[in-house]
Amino acid sequence: MSEQLDAMQRASRTQFDRQAACYGSGHILRDVSDVGAALDAIETAKLTPALDVATGAGHTAVYLAGRGIEVTAADISEGMLAETGKLAKERGLRIETRQHTAEQLPYEDGSFGLVACRVAAHHFASVRDFLREAFRVLRPGGWLLVIDGAAPDDAPRAEEWLHRVEKLRDPSHGRFLSASAWRLLAEETGFRVSECKTRPFKQPDLEWYFRTAGTSEENRRQVLELVAGAPEEARRVLGIAEEDGKIVWWWPRLTLLAQRPEVAKSARET
Ligand SMILES: C[S@@+](CC[C@H](N)C(=O)[O-])C[C@H]1O[C@@H](n2cnc3c(N)ncnc32)[C@H](O)[C@@H]1O
Questions:
Q1: Which atom of ligand 1 is nearest to the CA of 56?
Q2: For ligand 1, which residues put their CB under 6 angstroms from it?
Q3: What phi and psi, each to the nearest 5 degrees, are found at residue 126?
Q4: What backbone phi and psi angles, to 5 degrees, belong to 263?
Q5: Burial of 175: CB neighbours in 10 Å, binned 0-12, 13-18, 19+
Q6: Tens digits of per-residue pLDDT, 6-65?
Q7: Strand pairing partners for 258?
Q8: Which of these, 1, 133, 115, 132, lies nearest to 55 by C-alpha position?
Q9: How far lies 13's CA from each of 1, 76, 92, 129, in Å?
Q10: Which of the residues 38, 200, 206, 238 has the least number of beta carbons within 10 Å of its own beta carbon?
């Protein structure tokens, strides 16, 4: 990777290189029904070739390749790209892997029919730069799919609680944006938004979530304190509860599906 990394990008690379082995087949991200639900209605030919930004262990990239889409899977972390390579091999799929940041995409303008980015944008140093680059590398008519944890709308105490928990669990966490902030940023970039909404997504076990991120003992202790003292708004909005001895809660999970508009035909062509 030739580009200089800023502090947030370095933190992500360190975190995910260290934890890469935890993101494979036992991870909740292997269930890609959210990706399928967003993209199933779009013809495969319109989505190919695709770029999966911040591919992690490659669950989204493997779904796309399984649909017959030519896929480039990119990530800042070499360790995660190695996991993607393993998963693709296991499934007998060909996926090209590239190491680079989400904020600077090393491709020509108009190279892709789809840019996907799932459960990663909250780590980015600049979501605005990512959207600008995604727009540039999509051909006119190409699709953008972003799936990510989101900040609950109109619930500042729940948002602050969630932010503190996520940051303690994994210091490379940046901040979740609300669905309305995502829509605004996408539209400002030039995208035409066809879907932008959140659905509740269950986080099924806080202890598993700690292990996946390699959370330090001290930070685990602080998160457990935050859970015990969670404000009423956070309990209600995020559904914090204990089930069979496990602490569970519900992320608002965003699906943003948007399109780079087709170039308008000039009067003479029509
Ligand atoms: C939870 S994983 C992604 C999961 C994956 N997209 C999937 O569908 O299973 C988050 C990924 O974001 C990557 N990442 C974080 N910040 C990044 C950045 N600025 N540029 C590129 N990748 C980044 C991490 O290395 C990590 O692999």
A1: 27
A2: 9, 12, 16, 29, 54-57, 59-60, 75-77, 80, 101-103, 118-120, 123-125
A3: -150, 110
A4: -70, 130
A5: middle
A6: 999 999 999 999 989 888 777 889 999 999 999 999 999 999 999 999 999 999 999 999
A7: 144, 193
A8: 115
A9: 12, 6, 27, 18
A10: 200
Tokens of 132: 């600008």
Q: How far is CA 23 from the centre of its chain?
A: 13
Q: Which of 11, 89, 81, 22 is nearest to 52 (CA)?
A: 81
DSSP secondary structure letters along 112-171: EEEEEEES-GGG-S-HHHHHHHHHHHEEEEEEEEEEEE-PPTT-HHHHHHHHHHHHHH-T
Has residue 268 got a pLDDT over 80?
A: no
Structure tokens at 45: 């030919």
**If you measure from the C-alpha of residue 232 to the centroid of ligand 1, how many angstroms do you get, rounded to a whole number?**
32
Which tokens hold the place of 169? 């669990």
